[in-house]
Amino acid sequence: MAYWLMKSEPDDVSIDDVMAAPGQTIGWYGVRNYQARNFMRDAMRPGDGVLFYHSSCAEPGVAGVAEIIGAPYPDATQFDPNSPYFDPKATPEAPRWIGIDVKGIRKTRLLGIKEMRADPALAQMQLLQKGSRLSITPVQPEQWRHILQLLKEA
DNA sequence: GCCAACGTTGGC
DNA sequence: GCCAACGTTGGC
Question: Which nucleotides of B are covered by protein (CB under 7 A)?
Fold first, then answer.
């Protein structure tokens, strides 16, 4: 059992969108970074915990809790010339990019990045490291526990 | 809109 | 295989 933080722009897919989706489950698409892809391909397992993070928005921060469902599969947007995520070098025979299904567990209060930065217990989070911009980052078990505790508070 | 930090590209 | 140039990310 591992834990992850996954960034989504709420203008694109918000925690509300996830909770409103059939089965509260959405396909995670559009990852175009090899490190993040490798996390999905090599390390994610069904049942892994996910912090659903809103990025590039007015209030960046953790907005919900989710979990990984099922196995990774080729991200269809890489083959679609009309998609912003189109990759001309990817073919169905040799896909480059993958997606995975993520199921929303619950929407939480917004745990803002500012509050996270101010918390010594979270200082080691990869998300908060200088220059960090990976859209998928591992979360340590103690960080996960700490954040779930914070999310219970008002 | 700014800009620091990082990843990718491509000429050599 | 180096590395300069360029594009992207994402908080502010």
Answer: 4-8
